[in-house]
Amino acid sequence: MEGSFIGQVCALVAVGALWGVTNPLLKKGSETLPTTADENTRQGHLGKMFVAKFIHLVTNWKSVCPFVLNQCGSLLFYLTLSTADLSLAVPLANCLAFCFTIVTGWFVGEKVSNQSPTGIAGIALMLIGILLCMAGKA
Questions:
Q1: b/e for 18-49, b at 16 or more Cβ within 10 A?
Q2: Which of helix, strand or coil describes residue 138?
Q3: Which residues, in sequence order, are CB contacts of 55 under 8 Å at separation 6+?
Q4: Per the confidence metrics, is the pTM higher than 0.85?
Q5: N or C terminus of the chain: which is more exposed, having fewer CB within 10 Å?
Q6: Computed over its alpha carbons, how large is the radius of gyration of the chain?
Q7: Mind giving me the DSSP string for 6-73?
């Protein structure tokens, strides 16, 4: 049972990493989307702009690669839920995704407002809470 628990935790850490790391990369990859002019949307060109943006996203490797990795994280989460305890799986994956998002955003140059002492304390308290949940389930 111990090895199974460790395996589930490792899978959920991987899910959190895949979700968290890809969030800022998806944001970065979509920065090059063509802009929509207000007069075009009023004249009925909304469908054309949607198609243009969709084609741009599908052909841009900076948005496709993070999206595929993010979906791999979702698949791993779905597979892990068949054996993991929900009261551990959901908070662990989401908390770690948030922490990985903050760290990755900082590395790719996003302005991270959680560098304040209260933001760092909040992240530390989340991690302590997850550790307590894991200790209670082990």
A1: bbbbbbbbbebbbeeeeeeeeeeeeeeeeeeb
A2: coil
A3: none
A4: no
A5: N
A6: 19
A7: HHHHHHHHHHHHHHHHHHHHHHHHGGGPPPPPHHHHHTT-HHHHHHHHHHHHHH-HHHHHHHHHHHHH
In one-letter notation, the amino acid at residue 91 is P
**What CA–CA distance (Å, rounded) separates 12 from 100?**
13
**What span, in angstroms and rounded, lies between the C-alpha atoms of 28 and 9?**
29
> Of 40, 11, 2, 25, whose CA–CA distance to 110 is shortest?
25
**Looking at the chain, how many residues does it have?**
138
Contacts of 27 (CB under 8 A, 6+ apart): 110
